[in-house]
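Why should sequence recovery work at all? Because a backbone constrains its sequence more than one might expect. Tight turns favour small or flexible residues, buried strands favour hydrophobic ones, and helices have their own preferences. The token representation captures these environments compactly. In the example below, the structure is given first.
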């Protein structure tokens, strides 16, 4: 019991007696209480709130209600009411249904802000800054910046905003300030949350080792992002091809529709690692069936280093091997670039195959030595 109630009961013994013996409450202004509608009288609504007498919703408020609200307030209906005054000049407890709904609305809005649950907002109007709506009789505002996107080119702000009137938008509460009568909603935040929910649902439906369809939506130097139905996964540069590539655009373009293999799923970070190369056999597992030591092969120089040159087999495997600097020429050379350049196509001899270490040794010198020995033998016998 608050101080005001105690003071009232001290000055009014009958009221105190009623409250104690018959458990009748004495409501205070500002309270929101439950009550039952007992009658409609002279355009006022009488509500039993368990006090010494019924409270009234004044004819002034009733006349300001819309038809839907009035039809809702039928005799026997339990409703929440806000205590405007515990006693007017006629001794009546003055109640307000609208203010009770507003208080409930603010409380509900605070709950929505805390829970971050979505709320379906019926758009009732707009102004130059955004859209107007309500949450349980509390006016709310959706700034234009919190809608899905900017107006299309050539569309005025009025035309853009007016198209939403009468629609229902999925929104989230992003600001509640009761003192300033400020309630701000966002459709963009709700859409983001919906996308997150869809991503979680999609993640739960995926399995490692599964093959799914996708579309390349973005390319970075470290790999390609692929949309697999509302969720983007990354194909790292090393997982695009079995052969060595320097950039994803060597193999992919934005917009390409491809199949991808799911390498791993991180539910906590909502990340999916994908692979393209795992959809084809690893050429290192079959290299011994295709090539042998001593065989001559055509290769393309792909990279020059101080210790030698890397060369790619000109076949479907695209495997790379190393031509060590000592295997580039019979003559002493200062650097590999003295003999070969990037993109040169040359014939080399396979001098080493190690499938376990994924290494291939090549030689240009040994190819040349064989030619020289052959020439010497021919000239000796001629």
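From this structural description, the recovered sequence reads:
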């Amino acid at each position: 019991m608050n101080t005001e109630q105690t003071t009232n009961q001290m000055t009014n013994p009958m009221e105190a007696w009623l409250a104690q013996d018959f458990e009748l409450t004495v409501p205070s202004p500002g309270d929101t209480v439950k009550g039952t509608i007992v009658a409609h009288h002279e355009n006022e609504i009488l509500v039993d709130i368990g006090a010494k007498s019924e409270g009234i919703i004044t004819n002034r408020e009733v006349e300001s209600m819309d038809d839907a609200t009035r039809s809702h307030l039928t005799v026997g209906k339990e409703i929440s009411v806000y205590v405007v005054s515990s006693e007017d000049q006629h001794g009546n407890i003055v109640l307000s249904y609208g203010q009770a709904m507003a208080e409930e609305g603010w409380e509900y809005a605070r709950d929505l802000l805390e829970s971050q649950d979505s709320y379906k907002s019926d758009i009732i109007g707009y102004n130059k800054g955004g859209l107007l709506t309500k949450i349980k009789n509390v006016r709310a505002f959706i700034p234009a910046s919190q809608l899905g996107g900017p107006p299309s080119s050539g569309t005025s702000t009025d035309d853009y905003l007016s198209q939403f009137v009468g629609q229902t938008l999925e929104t989230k509460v992003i600001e509640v300030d009761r003192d300033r009568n400020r309630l701000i909603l966002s459709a963009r935040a709700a859409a983001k949350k919906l996308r997150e929910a869809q991503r979680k649902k999609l993640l739960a439906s995926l399995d490692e080792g599964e093959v799914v369809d996708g579309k390349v939506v973005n390319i970075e130097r470290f790999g390609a992002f692929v949309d697999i139905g509302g969720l983007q996964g990354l194909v790292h540069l090393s997982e695009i091809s079995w052969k060595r590539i320097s950039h994803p655009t060597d193999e992919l373009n934005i917009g390409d529709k491809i199949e991808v293999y799911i390498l791993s799923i991180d539910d906590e970070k909502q990340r999916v690692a994908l692979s393209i190369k795992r959809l084809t056999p690893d050429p290192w597992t079959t290299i011994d069936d295709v090539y042998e030591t001593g065989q001559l092969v055509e290769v393309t120089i792909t990279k020059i280093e101080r210790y030698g040159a890397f060369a790619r087999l000109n076949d479907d495997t695209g495997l790379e091997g190393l031509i060590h600097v000592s295997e580039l020429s019979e003559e002493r050379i200062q650097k590999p670039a003295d003999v070969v350049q990037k993109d040169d196509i040359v014939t080399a001899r396979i001098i080493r195959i190690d499938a376990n270490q994924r290494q291939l040794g090549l030689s240009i010198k040994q190819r040349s030595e064989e030619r020289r020995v052959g020439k010497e033998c021919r000239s000796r016998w001629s």
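A few observations help interpret the result. The first helix runs from residue 3 to 11.
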